[in-house]
Amino acid sequence: NYNLYGLGERIHGLRLGNNLTATTYAADVGDPIDLGVYGAHPFYLDTRYYEIDSHTGDMTYYSGNNSAANGSYTSMSHGVYLRNAHGQEALLRPDGLTWRTIGGSIDLYFFDGPSQSEVTKQYQIGAIGLPAMQQYFTFGYHQCRWGYKNWTQLQEVVDNFAAANIPLEN
Q1: Long-range CB contacts (< 8 A, 24+ apart) of 160-166?
Q2: Which of 44, 71, 97, 161 has minimal CB crowding within 10 Å?
Q3: Member of which family (predicted)?
Q4: What is the chain written as a DSSP string?
Q5: What backbone torsions phi and psi does residue 156 show, to the nearest 5 degrees?
Q6: Per-chain mean pLDDT for the chain
Q7: Model pTM?
Q8: pLDDT tens sequence across 14-36
């Protein structure tokens, strides 16, 4: 009953299910439902929810789907990042998560949070660094090669770029 989010760019619900094999391999596929898109970034954030007893202050792990409107809840999060240049999979199953890779070194980072924002800060500062400011000329229009049914549609896109005086590289 875990709540995992992340594991790279994929077309999937925000919360990852507990019966999912997440392949992390930047394959650039045209129909990527439940598959990787362009980025291969094996980081996940896990958030656990706890109900707080109003009389004692004790916290009880909450794994249900129906929360009480007048209940008091809190959450705690942690994150894990596996830095590896090879293809890999994360097998999410009801009893846990298994990571497997086809080679390379294993640089495993754990971020203890305890909040989601703290996990993100620890991840950025401790593992990947802050994003660099991009040069002005890199901001522009980008066209994906997928989604065109035929050459006529592609030619129409190219013609529209030209009609609007927007540069387009081949």
Answers
A1: 166/141
A2: 71
A3: Belongs to the glycosyl hydrolase 31 family.
A4: ---EEESSSBBS-SEEPSSEEEEE-----SS-BTSB-S----EEEEEEEEEEPTTT--EEEE--S---TT--EEEEEEEEEEE-SS-EEEEEETTEEEEEESSS--EEEEE--SSHHHHHHHHIIIII-PPPPPPGGG-S----SSS-SSHHHHHHHHHHHHHTT-----
A5: -65, -40
A6: 84
A7: 0.72
A8: 888 888 888 877 666 666 666 65
pLDDT tens profile 108-121 = 999 999 999 999 99
35-to-7, 74, 88 alpha-carbon distances in Å: 11, 32, 12
- What does the alpha-carbon distance between residue 46 and residue 103 come to, in Å, rounded to a whole number? 26
Cβ contact 16:22 at 8 Å? yes
| Amino acid residing at 7 | L
The total number of residues shown for the chain amounts to 170
Residue 15: phi and psi, rounded to 5, are: -85, 125
- Distance CA(164)–CA(168), nearest Å, equals 11
- Mean pLDDT for the stretch of residues 121-132: 91
Side chain identity at residue 140, one-letter code: G
